[in-house]
Amino acid sequence: MMKRILLATDLSEQCKFAHERAVALATSQGAELRILHAHAADASETELMVITRIIENRTRDCSARHEHCEPDLTIQLSEAPKEEAIKNEIFDFNPDVVILGSHGEPRMRDAIFGTTATHLLRSTRCPILVVQNPVEGAYSKALLAVDDAGSARRLYPFAAEMDVKDEIYAVHACEPSLRELVDGDDTEAEALAELKLAISELAREQPESPQPELFAYASQGDPMDVLQKCSREVSPDLIIMGSHGRSGFARYLLGSYSDDMLLWCPADLLVVRVDVEEAAAAA
Questions:
Q1: What angle, 0 to 180 degrees and rounded to 10, lies between the N-to-C axes of helices 45-65 and 16-29?
Q2: Average pLDDT, the chain
Q3: How far is residue 115's CA from residue 110's CA, in Å, rounded to a whole number?
């Protein structure tokens, strides 16, 4: 369960969905919600009072719209530059997740992920949730973009924290070596079998209360091509990706492909930082 959620908002229309998701998660998890707004350095006291009132009213409206009780709310206003302000709050507040809204036109997520979210991911260990869709309730379907069975186990708890209710798909892209291609080894079947075993073990570990169904999906090909294919078939409302290492899906998040990836991504995106040493210890 999450204890602290940080929402960074510029109060634009594009951030309203992120505000709604933050309120929904905070109330369902019983978490403290801190809302951060970075304002102009020359903002007057009156302007700061108006900003605070807007945040309070928007939070109240989100709670009423989804019949939630109002969350445990604190508001932090900062005159520091946006990224610096978020990093300061991550250090001071130690949130379980930072929530950002998509910025700009609907198909221009690179404006947010190519700057703020990417920089935060590289400089902090806090999970980053980029919200772009209206909140219709709890997340229904999630894709876990995994490099192996071990990363499926590491990412699954984050799906639970995000309140995914119905279906979770662990998606793995097989990248066979040249020798495997020449010898005709069935790496896809082997990867799928390994992933199904991990998923079945996860299912057995879950409480008897209703839990989302778990599925395994493995296919040969470029990781982003595989993820797009599965996304078209499943239509998830959340994609969860780990950022450890430089192979598989991870290299897209820490490399130069992240902006291109988000141009097609139709779902909200949660990116989780897992260091290589931590991943090896958990394997």
A1: 60
A2: 80
A3: 8
Residue 267 one-letter amino acid: A
Beta bridge partners of 213: 167
Give the angle subtended at the CA of 226 by the CAs of 224 and 232, to the nearest 5°. Answer: 100
Amino acid at 128: I
Residue 107, Cβ neighbours under 10 Å: how many? 13
Q: Which two tokens stand for residue 143?
A: 């894709």
Pairing of strands 213-220, 128-131: unpaired
Task: Give the count of alpha carbons within 13 A of 245, CB side only.
Answer: 15
| DSSP assignment letter at 105 | S
Query: What is the rounded distance in angstroms from the CA atom of residue 280 to the CA atom of residue 282?
Result: 5
Over 50: is that where the pLDDT of 256 sits? no
Q: What is the pTM assigned to this prediction? A: 0.84
AA letter at 186: D
Backbone phi, psi, residue 224, to 5°: -70, -35
